[in-house]
Design goal:
Helix content: 55-70%
Strand order of the largest sheet: 3-4-5-6
Mean pLDDT: 84
Distance between the termini: 42 Å
Low-confidence stretches: none
Number of helices: 7
Number of strands: 6
Order of helices and strands: HHEHEEEHHEEHH
């Protein structure tokens, strides 16, 4: 019986690794597929002096061309192709090649950190499992662009009247969702710790150790 329990024990850990692999892979595929679509399907305007010999990425990076907006929801949501040398939502876009190298290193470190955190996570921390998978998938999605092109493909533009949110992509979305889920897990863990502390206090009270507990 003991041998059977020992054999069954690793199953919950296997489940969290399977979830991590599936969610991060689906996030990565969705990100890369939509970026490929955006680079091939969305229009760009090269003006009268555009260089037709340049590819879409180089033309946008060198500012020979600009992405043309394609309306999805009039006044609120457009597709507009752009190349972002920075991180999510255009942050750190003016840091040059050194910044891109540092962001690539940060991306690799982030993925390694997610794997390390998943190893430490308990089987019942399901929200955290999803969060780590989303962050890893999003980080790898943008990392692939940064390594292959030197820039990240963005194409989703949200705006209201003259105000525009920085253009973003699916990897940015899943990164934000992942970070949000991490905060939810932190809140849940805080409540769990409070409940555990209260249970210890009740146990100490029943055992007549309240005075010792209060001194602590």
């Amino acid at each position: 019986m003991a041998d059977e329990e020992a054999t069954a024990a690793p199953i919950p850990d296997l489940k969290k690794w399977k979830l991590f692999a599936i969610v991060s892979l689906v996030s990565l595929i969705a990100d890369q597929a939509t970026k490929i679509w955006a680079r091939h399907a969305l229009p760009i305007d090269c003006g009268p002096h555009g260089d037709g010999n340049l590819g879409v990425v180089d033309a946008l990076v060198q500012r020979k061309c600009i992405g043309k907006a394609v309306g999805v929801i009039d006044g609120f949501w457009d597709w507009r192709l752009s190349m972002n040398p920075g991180s999510a939502f255009g942050l750190f876009s003016g840091t040059g090649s050194f910044g891109r190298i540092m962001l690539s290193i940060v991306g690799i470190a982030a993925v390694a950190g997610m794997i390390w955190m998943l190893r430490k996570a308990r089987p019942d921390q399901r929200v955290l499992h999803w969060a780590l998978a989303f962050v890893a998938g999003g980080a790898v999605g943008n990392l692939i662009d940064r390594i292959y092109f030197g820039v990240v493909t963005d194409f989703v533009l949200w705006r209201y009247k003259t105000k525009e949110w920085p253009v973003f992509n699916i990897a940015d979305v899943v990164l934000v969702v992942g970070v949000g889920l991490m905060f939810i897990d932190i809140q849940k863990e805080g409540k769990r710790e409070k409940a555990a502390k209260k249970a210890r206090q009740e146990k100490a009270k029943q055992a007549g150790l309240v005075k010792d507990l209060e001194k602590k």
